[in-house]
Design goal:
Elements: H1 13-31, H2 38-45, H3 49-55, H4 59-68, H5 84-101, H6 104-110, H7 116-121, H8 134-147, H9 157-177, H10 184-196
Length: about 200
């Protein structure tokens, strides 16, 4: 039995956090994201509630981990800014590939209307995207493309980012509906390119 006294023992902190994360993944796959509670995760991980709160503020903070573990603000993109549609897709595929690594069952349960962390991450706060999110990086990339003349000057960049996020959600949802049989990457590239083509400078 693991240490249940609260703060993890020295040298075991990394294992305790990984145990919490792995236990959460198992619960989501087995029962859905709605079954994730602090008590359920701790029981699965055989850790104290105090140990949980050493790493995460609450359930939503834990679920946000799966969205925020990639540092989008600093992640490297290889596609040139002049090919802005492909560059935005490259950015979003980093998130989608992480989803897919966790498996179809995880995706189906995590990508639900009951996941408040997902809606918070993919949403806005006072009309702005949260710093460090994939949407904030998307907005920066599209703004840079507009400043370079690749996007029309009258384009509403924030609206474009919001629409692209909706497209991504739709592609992921379609992938889930088809039990992972949809080839999500080419579909995403095609739809985003068709959408942004209207705003390209020719």
């Amino acid at each position: 039995m693991s240490n249940r006294s609260g703060r993890p023992a020295k040298g075991s902190e990394k294992n305790s956090k990984e145990n919490i994360i792995e236990s959460t993944i198992a619960i989501i796959k087995e029962q859905g994201s709605e079954a994730v509670t602090v008590r359920n995760v701790c029981a699965k991980a055989e850790l104290s509630i105090g140990t949980f709160y050493h790493y995460f503020r609450d359930k939503d903070d834990l679920l946000m981990y799966f969205l925020s573990e990639i540092q989008f603000e600093n992640c490297e993109l290889t596609v040139d800014l002049s090919k802005i549609s492909d560059r935005i897709c490259e950015l979003y595929m980093k998130l989608i590939n992480r989803y897919m690594e966790l498996g179809l069952d995880f995706m189906k349960s995590f990508y639900s209307t009951g996941n408040r962390s997902l809606s918070a991450y993919m949403g806005e706060i006072d009309g702005s995207f949260a710093p460090g999110t994939v949407m904030a990086r998307s907005e920066k990339e599209l703004t840079d493309a507009k400043n370079k003349g690749y996007i029309k000057k009258n384009a509403d960049i924030h609206m474009l980012c919001t629409d692209i996020c909706t497209i991504v959600k739709g592609c992921v949802f379609e992938w889930c509906l088809n039990d992972g049989k949809t080839d999500i990457e080419p579909a995403l590239y095609r739809i985003v390119d068709n959408y942004l083509s209207v705003f390209h400078n020719t």
